[in-house]
Structure to design on (216 residues):
């Protein structure tokens, strides 16, 4: 069943809860299709009077901020052994190359890596735990986390909602296009990161990377 069709079968409160939960778990570090769920729910709100886009945006933003914060706490407590464990459990997402790519982003951009990482599918999973592992000052992380979560979740909800309203006569077709577009954006960003990750893989004689504090 299409994601939007499934969401249409459950009460509005359940839609808010599912969106917040999925985005929260994705932000915490669990690979889940948060963006696809959010796009589908926002499209649903444009044609379903029972789903309020404002509440939806608030729930999505809250899930993003809370999930990232929990991921930060877990990463700060677990350190690099946690990244190694995640690499064994989710090699497609937490490989050495992916971690090295994300680390370079954090070292170069600091708190802005948390903010802009919200808009990149794979970095959404990394941001919280990696910021904790690198011991980024919490106030910097929280500032970037809150701003990024609100702009990404609230902005995505608003854009998709108003596009759905304007294109009401094409809504059925657009729901598919919106879902496909979200998937393509996610896959494209993932492929780009994988390509960069290959070049970031340490050589056989390379030493174990040391923890580098996040830049300002």
């Amino acid at each position: 069943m299409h994601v939007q069709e499934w969401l249409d079968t459950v009460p509005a409160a359940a839609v808010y809860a599912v969106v917040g939960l999925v985005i929260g778990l994705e932000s915490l570090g669990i690979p889940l299709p948060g963006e696809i769920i959010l796009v589908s729910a926002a499209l649903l709100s444009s044609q379903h009077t029972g789903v309020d886009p404002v509440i939806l945006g608030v729930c999505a933003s809250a899930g993003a901020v809370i999930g990232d914060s929990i991921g930060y706490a877990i990463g700060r407590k677990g350190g690099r052994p946690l990244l190694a464990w995640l690499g064994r459990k989710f090699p497609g997402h937490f490989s050495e190359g992916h971690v090295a790519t994300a680390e370079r982003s954090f070292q170069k951009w600091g708190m802005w890596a948390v903010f802009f990482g919200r808009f990149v599918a794979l970095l959404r999973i990394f941001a919280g735990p990696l910021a904790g592992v690198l011991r980024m000052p919490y106030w910097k992380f929280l500032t970037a986390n809150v701003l990024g979560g609100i702009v990404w979740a609230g902005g995505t909800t608003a854009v998709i909602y108003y596009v759905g309203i304007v294109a009401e006569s094409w809504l059925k077709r657009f729901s598919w296009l919106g879902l496909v577009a979200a998937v393509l954006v996610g896959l494209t960003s993932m492929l780009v990161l994988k390509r960069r990750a290959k070049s970031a893989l340490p050589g056989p004689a390379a030493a174990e990377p040391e923890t580098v504090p996040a830049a300002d």
User: Anything to note?
Assistant: Confidence is low (pLDDT under 50) at residues 204-211.
